[in-house]
């Protein structure tokens, strides 16, 4: 029973590590403060759930969840490509609210507040991921592939162009670089992998509803990114383990069940405050949080 609990937590950590790494592409490497990132997570989850309910093979649904989220990333990027700072943040926040409202009110497609239940476990070429252990292996493989791909992207010449947009957009534009195109691509890459994370989440939990993807949940993902450090893939992974793993240890402390929730939130706050006070760049961050 205890091992099953730890495996469950490990699966959630892996999924949120993918989410944090994908957000770091936009925030840490491209310099786009996207407060609507949780929307891409939800789009991926709903896309995958609806497709598999209509007998689409899981691998195709997994890829489609990333592609569909990326399309919405393109749409958001086109709308906000000339915004920056607080205006960009507010626009992406508004996008998150719009997506949440669609999930909540388009009942014919999403079943509204009732959500989608009975989402099947993936069947990968005969490998049926029914148990948490097998799902952890599969999710870890997907996470490793994603992190490897993102690592190759950010370490390439193209990755340095994204960083140039982040550090000095005017200078990059003066050198003939299309900064608007780079911003759009950066957000699309970020959205694609968030959509993949959404698919993994939906088929693991087997039930999704709009409340799972409410805009307030972005706080946890941003906390992971900030604690790990901007523009640090390693930091996002280690931070996901710390931020999601440590609070779960409260289950083994003799506390009233009514206090566990508030104590977890308090731990999030304390960790974030300590990091901002003593390591403003996070554990492994390469740039300052502005």
The count of helical stretches stands at: 12
Beta-strand share of residues: under 5%
Uncertain stretches: none
Structural class: mainly alpha
Total discrete domains:
1
Largest sheet geometry: 2 strands, antiparallel
| N-to-C series of helices and strands | HHHHHEEEHHHHEHHH
Amount of helix: over 70%
Overall outline:
globular
Strand order of the largest sheet: 1-4
Rg, alpha carbons: 19 Å
> Oligomeric status of the shown chains?
single chain
Q: How would you state the average pLDDT, rounded?
A: 90
Number of strands: 4
CA-CA gap between termini: 44 Å
Can you describe this structure in just a few lines?
The chain is built from 12 helices and 4 strands.
Please characterize this protein's 3D structure.
This protein is mainly alpha-helical and 290 residues long. It has one domain. Helices cover 71% and strands 3% of the residues. It is built from twelve helices and four strands. The chain has helices at residues 2-29, 37-53, 58-80, 85-105, 107-110, 132-155, 157-167, 169-174, 179-205, 218-228, 233-245, 257-278; strands spanning 116-117, 123-124, 127-128, 207-208. The strands form two sheets. It has a two-stranded antiparallel ribbon. Strands 2-3 form a two-stranded antiparallel sheet. A hairpin with a 2-residue loop joins strand 2 (123-124) and strand 3. Helix 2 (37-53) packs antiparallel against helix 3 (58-80). It is globular, with a radius of gyration of 19 Å. The model has no long low-confidence stretch (mean pLDDT 90).
